[in-house]
């Protein structure tokens, strides 16, 4: 940046003022002077007799606008801080809901696995019940089949002999018990 300055002539309130500014800042300084000239025009009939007083009033008007804008910025900053706090609170709540959702999805998956295992077990048990029912039905028909078996059946004679032996042993056992019971009385 150059240390040499530029001179700019400004028109404020119908009067010309020459000021020195940094090189390259001429257009900016002229824009600022135009703002001051607008404020001077706002004074209208209320202008003071001396130019310095009018410039003071313009400076006060500009200072007042700056103050109002600063207050507005402070309000906006406060609102922004409040919004940021609400956003953080919402974000924390959203994270909590997401975690709870993941937990519930895990539980749901576990319950589905349990339901599937129970269904498979129920299917196995139903098959076992069916098998046992069939076995009971088959055994219920066994005496009728034995009695209806022809005498020529080669397996029938040994089975009947074993059955007769078992009956004899049972009868002997009962007689022994009855005999010993009578001896006691």
- The proportion of residues forming helix, as a percent range, comes to over 70%
Sheet with the most strands: spatial strand order: 1-2
Structural class: mainly alpha
User: Would you report the number of β strands?
Assistant: 2
Largest sheet: 2 strands, antiparallel
The number of helical runs is 3
Overall tally of structural domains:
2
Report the span from N to C terminus: 139 Å
Strand content: 5-15%
Globally, the shape reads rod-shaped
As residue ranges, the low-confidence spans are none
Compute the gyration radius: what is it?
57 Å
Spell out the helices and strands N to C.
EEHHH
Mean pLDDT: 85
Structure write-up:
By secondary structure, the protein is mainly alpha-helical. The chain has 2 domains: 45 residues, 2-Layer Sandwich (Double Stranded RNA Binding Domain), CATH 3.30.160; 102 residues. Strands 1-2 form a two-stranded antiparallel ribbon. The radius of gyration is 57 Å and the shape is rod-shaped.
């Amino acid at each position: 940046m150059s240390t040499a300055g530029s001179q700019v002539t400004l028109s404020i309130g119908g009067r010309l003022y020459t000021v020195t500014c940094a090189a390259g800042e001429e257009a900016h300084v002229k824009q600022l002077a135009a703002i001051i000239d607008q404020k001077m025009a706002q004074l209208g009939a209320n202008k003071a007799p001396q130019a310095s007083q009018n410039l003071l009033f313009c400076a006060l008007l500009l200072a007042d606008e700056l103050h109002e804008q600063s207050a507005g910025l402070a309000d906006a900053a406060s609102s922004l801080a409040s919004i940021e706090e609400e956003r953080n609170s919402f974000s924390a709540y959203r994270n909590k809901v997401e975690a709870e959702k993941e937990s519930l999805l895990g539980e749901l998956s576990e319950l589905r696995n349990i339901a599937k295992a129970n269904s498979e077990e129920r299917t196995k048990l139903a098959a076992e019940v069916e098998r046992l029912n069939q076995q009971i039905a088959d055994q219920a028909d066994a005496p009728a089949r034995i009695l209806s078996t022809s005498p020529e059946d080669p397996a029938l004679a040994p089975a009947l002999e074993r059955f007769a032996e078992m009956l004899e042993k049972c009868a002997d056992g009962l007689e022994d018990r009855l005999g010993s019971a009578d001896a006691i009385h």
